[in-house]
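B., you asked whether I could sanity-check this one before it goes into the benchmark set. Here's the sequence:
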Amino acid sequence: MTVAAVIFAADADTALADAEGVARVRRIVDAAWSGGALPIVVVAPDPDGRVATILSGTSVTLGTPATSEDGAVAQIVRGFDIAAAEVREISAALIWPARLCWVGPETVTSLVEAHGPDSGTLLRPSYNGEAGWPVLLPIGALDTLRTLPAAATPGELIDLLVAAGAVVTRDIDLGDPGTVMDGDTARADLPPYEGPGQPGGAHEWGAALASMPDDTPLAGPTRADPSAF
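And here's what the prediction gave me:
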């Protein structure tokens, strides 16, 4: 099964906020790619091209967001639609607010692997009993998601999906403090990671960024055609 990553930010400053020397959105893209998510879609305002620049050299699609009046639900749906247009056999997407920049690739891999035998369930990573992000949302819940109110926060959207009977949820304690502690907490101040070991084949977190030469040509990201959505 193929699981996309839909990363969304309310504004460019949130996407580009510093995360230990790397823009939050770039660090998240690296973790999603290392953990096995495909395709990866970023939905964020980019009026001056700074988000596109920071994503140069990645296999990412940058989507123009819906209007702010349409709320978080419209941003998530936009990202899901872009991902499904790129890879039509996707079965779910990781819904990932850009403020959650410390999630490890091991968490992504664990969620993707858990989705295989449990494909109809919304999976949430948890840490010390607290549910976090990104959530793995099955594609079967997308039609119900489209009907939810624009005023709802991302967390409220999950509750509304459950209340509507669109999904059942399962929390998985993955021992990753980055699933519940956002970029306002310095990485050095996070509690120790307690989750599974690094997934096979994945590079060390951030290694793709550290190994990229300063003169790497700008190649990407792909921009989604806004007229298609």
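One thing to flag: The radius of gyration is 16 Å. Otherwise nothing jumped out at me.
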